[in-house]
Design a protein that fits this description.
heterodimer, A: about 290 residues, alpha/beta, Rossmann fold, 6-stranded mixed beta sheet, 4-stranded antiparallel beta sheet, 9 helices, B: about 280 residues, mainly alpha, MetI-like fold, 12 helices
Chain lengths: ~290, ~280
């Protein structure tokens, strides 16, 4: 279970005329995601949903609030007072708070993350990419080869094991990222607009594959997207973010039994509701700004 | 002879053959990428006229022959130098100096560069020192080095080290520092320790700029080799060059210069080949 309590994130931005300005990327976002559910975070670009995902993954520290994953704190929030700041500085003088330990490979929270531009390592072949994450998880050396082949087969990449990511198509690279994420056997998979950069047909196939894998393995999946169709078709619950400052505008449960049909009337109905909300936000954007 | 041993023999000989084939194949690749670009049809149309011009102009007396020896004379001089001056010995001593200075710089500059690029704490403590020291031109170190080390191998190695050190250091540092944070983030989420990040992510991402630094280092190292041998030493290409100047033997100077040019070019081609082999993944792009 993921529990985000009052997450806020402030940045300072330097304007063109060299004045600094505070910018609220997230304003007190609280969210509870049950184990085994498929949740989409939906919103226009720049509404802080990717930032929120990175905070969940422990890749950024929140300015305020806490994230708990299975009752374990992900990252301590940034210091607020001068005194706290000094202690924080002293504590993280050498290694930044998001770093793992110096020599020991050890995942902190059973999370895997899939990035928008895949972030598979271009200097490793498909097989080596999966072997690398298997090694991080601590799988015995003798078992790694077999396991890597299994995960690559699971996402339909057998036959391309020895290709480098630059030789793979966008969809195959995304599959590789998925295989790499699955290979650590995480309980939670965070996905940051995973299907944004592939063509429509490939996207549909990848979505089907993702659903199949989710139903087989029952992992928690948190999907960030700006695609309403995708969010409604895939998830149990759609969390709608609104921009300026980023906050949760609404939560819509999608109680449609699976397997779903993309063109069914229930799906269309929910989609229209969400689109109306979305449109309202974009038109009345200025109302939200401070 | 039993059947088994025959099979085993043929297997080992086949493996031996395969190993041998691999070496030959790699050698062909290297020769094709290095000498291939010099002896390509396009470049030969430039190179041959230039050589003819160099040969003909002094012979016709357009330029004084005493000042510009034609290539044929340079070749003859080179043969004479090999026979009379024990050229092999000079080349070996230059090679020993250069290799030890270069390796010393590589094994110090590369780790320091990696550490400075990786960690802010280390960077803040170490980088300013190198930024202050680096702008001092390496030849400016010659007088103090001679006083400190005396004339000899340590002084020469130190001067070459100074030439090679900073380019490798700064290029490594820059490459490591500019590692794409997305790759780091993705490895961190999977639980990679900082050490794993360095060995599996940072270094590979910075490979291109590290090799660039080594190439610049080779060029500067050769400069420092000549300077070091000119100021202190009784052997080596730099010393031969200086000796030729004393006796006004322009043909010998040209031989030394051509040799130095060839060595520099060859070493850089070796680096290109290593880059090609280590960065196979870039070929597809």
């Amino acid at each position: 279970m993921i529990e985000a309590k009052g997450i806020s994130k402030f940045f300072s931005v330097v304007n063109d005329d060299r004045t600094a300005e505070g910018f609220t990327a997230l304003n007190s976002v609280s969210l509870r995601i049950e184990s085994g559910s498929f949740v989409s975070l939906l919103g226009p670009s720049g509404c802080g949903k990717s930032t929120f995902l990175e905070i969940l993954a422990g890749l950024q520290a929140p300015s305020d609030g806490q994230v708990w994953i299975d009752d374990k704190l992900v990252l301590e929030p940034l210091p607020a007072t001068r005194r706290e700041m000094e202690e924080y500085r002293k504590k993280y003088r050498f290694l930044s708070p998001i770093a793992n330990s110096l020599f020991r490979d050890n995942p902190k929270h059973d999370i895997a993350m899939i990035f928008q531009d895949y972030a598979v390592f271009p200097w490793m072949t498909a097989r080596q990419n999966v072997l690398f994450t298997l090694k991080l998880r601590g799988v015995q050396k003798s078992e790694r080869e077999g396991a890597a082949a299994d995960y690559l087969r699971l996402v339909g990449l057998s036959g391309s094991e020895n290709k480098y990511p630059s030789q793979l198509s966008g969809g195959m690279r995304q599959r590789l990222a998925l295989a790499r994420a699955l290979s650590v056997e995480p309980r939670i998979i965070l996905m940051d607009e995973p299907f944004a950069a592939v063509d429509a047909l490939t996207r549909e196939r990848l979505q089907e594959d993702l659903l199949r894998l989710w139903q087989e393995t029952k992992k928690t999946i948190v999907l960030v997207t700006h695609d309403v169709d995708e969010a409604v078709y895939l998830s149990d619950e759609v969390v709608v973010f609104s921009p300026l400052p980023g906050s949760i505008r609404n939560k819509v449960a999608v109680d449609i039994p699976r397997p779903r049909r993309r063109s069914s009337s229930e799906i269309r109905e929910i989609k229209e509701r969400l689109l109306a909300m979305y449109k309202y936000d974009t038109i009345h954007e200025s109302d939200y700004s401070i | 002879m039993s059947v088994d041993s025959i099979i085993r023999d043929s297997a080992t000989s086949r493996r031996g053959l395969r190993w041998w084939n691999l070496v030959v194949r790699e050698l062909v690749v290297f020769l094709r990428t290095s000498f291939g670009s010099v002896f390509s049809r396009e470049f030969l149309t430039v190179l041959i006229p230039l050589l003819i011009l160099w040969e003909v102009l002094p012979r016709l007396g357009v330029v004084p022959r005493t000042l510009v020896p034609p290539p044929s004379a340079v070749v003859v001089t080179f043969r004479d130098m090999v026979v009379d001056l024990n050229m092999a010995e000079h080349l070996t001593s230059s090679a020993i100096r250069f290799t030890s200075g270069f390796l010393l710089a590589l094994v110090t500059a590369f780790p320091i560069g990696v550490l400075m690029g990786w960690n802010l704490f280390i960077r803040k403590h170490a980088l300013p020192l190198f930024q202050i020291l680096a702008p001092v031109p390496p030849p400016a170190w010659v007088p103090i080095t001679i006083i400190l080390f005396g004339v000899g191998l340590p002084m020469q190695i130190f001067l070459i080290f100074l030439g090679v050190f900073y380019p490798i250091l700064f290029n490594t540092y820059q490459g490591i520092k500019e590692t794409d944070p997305r790759y780091l983030a993705s490895a961190r989420v999977f639980g990679a320790s900082e050490f794993t990040l360095i060995t599996r992510v940072y270094i590979w991402h910075a490979l291109g700029s590290v090799i660039m630094g080594i190439k610049i280092g080779i060029a500067l190292g050769l400069i420092m080799l000549v300077i070091a041998e000119m100021y202190g030493g009784r052997s080596g290409l730099g010393w031969l060059l200086l000796e030729a100047k004393e006796y006004f033997q322009i043909d010998r100077m040209v031989v030394c210069m051509v040799l130095l040019g060839f060595i520099g070019w060859f070493l850089i081609e070796v680096m290109k080949y290593i880059e090609l082999k280590l960065a196979v993944w870039r070929i597809g792009r």
